[in-house]
């Protein structure tokens, strides 16, 4: 059995399949493992370059428990989960404890805001009971599954496929700042809240109900631990081994062409982006419908990242969001007819107070991210345009300064990464972080299926069902391992 890609999804699937008794070989094009769950080290600084917050930690615990036992990861709560700064200067520190959230909203935004959120939160809890295990831990392949999910009129009203995330916020949240905060959760799937189905209102519910968590030493440690579990289970992991073709005969996989030569397999699990799989790796006619569907699907947002090595330390919340004055204009710039770098972006900062990530206690590292359109030289933004990346990085730092966080005179050095860089590093087309955007009534629940129409081919990772983010990627590995089953 071959796994294409050693991202978290590929490694988690490999571990599960090896634990079930399969002989598993992993081919990874990059020189390291982890995919988007990456890290960058320089001069004693270490930065997580991918996910920075762990939610649903029990999903990670289950992976290790079901493949051989506990992993040595130091998982700690993040409190506050995030500090939000609105364009009017209002600051909201979101507590780790969900029971404290209503009072925090009232204190920051005014009386009644906590009650309004509590009503939406309760609605999202009911929605989570409907879509949680039944959707996120099971194959989900088409309209029939949607119909089965919404078993009655009450369920259908709750899923409300006709309503967007922004529409739900406008209906239930009276404060424009609260709506801005709520709309931001569409970016967790790389999407526009005005086009994202309201079913994704479960995202803030999950973050609050199950909490936000951090792995001491950096979340990259998750990828390291899963790789170690794979090796302990006998998985052969080949780095720098790019798969250039998934071969088929009569609609069934027969193996892969990799850097080291032909590797025969009657089962292939692909952790590469679904666009890359169906557009470049497999040409079997059985894949044509999936290929056409992906061509119609919009790409998710990408991101511009600044890794900042800063002199001095100014301890504060690990996660900070500085909202733009007009977040609708921000989404227009990313998803509009004429994509462009966002002039006035919302800025996210991850500044963990973790001694393992800095050379000494007289400095600190910041990961800074702004959402951006994918790299698309033909029809959108060419992020390789000379001077664009550095000029835009300067703009992001100026925006931070305008919002009260001027670190420009503290910068020891900086590293700028664009969507084009992410595409080169991970193979994600255009650097789209989540593959396809969740736009349209069914999009959030109908990503590329885990079982391909090509027999013996399976999809795992953030571009496939159930979607991006650490716990969902781990769910995709669980789904694929169940679909394949034990060796016969």
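^ Assign residues to that structure.
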């Amino acid at each position: 059995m071959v796994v294409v890609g050693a991202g978290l999804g590929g490694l988690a699937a490999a571990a599960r399949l090896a634990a079930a008794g399969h002989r598993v070989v992993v081919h990874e094009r990059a020189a390291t493992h982890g995919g988007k769950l990456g890290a960058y080290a320089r001069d004693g600084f270490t930065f997580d370059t991918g996910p920075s917050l762990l939610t649903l930690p029990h999903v990670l615990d289950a992976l290790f428990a079901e493949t051989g036992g506990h992993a040595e990861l130091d998982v700690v709560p993040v409190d506050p989960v995030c500090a939000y700064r609105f364009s009017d200067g209002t600051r909201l520190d979101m507590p780790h404890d969900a029971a404290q959230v209503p009072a925090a909203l009232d204190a920051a935004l005014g009386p009644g805001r906590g009650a309004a959120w509590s009503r939406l939160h309760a609605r999202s809890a009911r929605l989570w009971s409907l879509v949680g295990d039944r959707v996120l831990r099971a194959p989900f392949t088409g309209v029939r599954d949607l119909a089965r999910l919404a078993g009655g009129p009450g369920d259908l009203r709750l899923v409300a496929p006709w309503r967007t995330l922004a529409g739900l916020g406008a209906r239930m949240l009276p404060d424009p700042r609260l709506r801005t905060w709520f709309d931001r959760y569409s970016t967790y799937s790389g999407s526009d809240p005005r086009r994202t189905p309201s079913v994704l209102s479960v995202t803030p519910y999950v973050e609050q109900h199950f909490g936000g968590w951090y792995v001491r030493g950096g979340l990259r440690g998750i990828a390291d631990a899963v790789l170690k579990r794979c090796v302990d289970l006998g998985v052969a992991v080949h780095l720098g081994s790019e798969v250039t073709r998934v071969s088929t005969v009569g609609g069934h996989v027969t193996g892969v062409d990799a850097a080291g030569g032909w590797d025969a397999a009657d089962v292939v699990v692909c952790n590469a982006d679904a666009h890359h799989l169906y557009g470049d790796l497999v040409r079997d006619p059985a894949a044509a419908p999936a290929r056409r569907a992906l061509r119609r699907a919009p790409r998710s947002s990408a991101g511009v990242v600044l890794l900042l090595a800063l002199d001095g330390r100014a301890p504060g919340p690990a996660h900070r969001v500085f909202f733009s004055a007009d977040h609708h204009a921000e989404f227009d710039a990313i998803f509009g007819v004429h994509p462009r770098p966002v002039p006035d972006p919302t800025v996210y900062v991850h500044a963990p107070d973790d001694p393992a990530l800095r050379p000494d206690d007289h400095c600190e590292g910041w990961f800074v991210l702004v959402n951006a359109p994918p790299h698309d030289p033909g029809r959108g933004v060419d992020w390789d345009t000379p001077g664009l990346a550095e000029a835009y990085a300067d703009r992001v730092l100026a925006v931070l300064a305008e919002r009260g966080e001027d670190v420009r005179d503290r910068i020891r050095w900086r590293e700028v990464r664009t969507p084009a860089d992410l595409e080169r590093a991970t193979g994600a087309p255009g650097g789209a972080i989540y593959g396809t955007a969740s736009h349209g009534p069914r999009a959030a629940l109908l990503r590329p299926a885990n079982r391909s129409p090509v027999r013996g081919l399976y999809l795992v990772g953030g571009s496939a069902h159930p979607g991006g983010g650490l716990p969902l990627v781990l769910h995709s590995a669980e789904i694929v391992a169940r679909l394949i089953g034990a060796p016969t």
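Residues 113-136 form the longest helix (24 residues).
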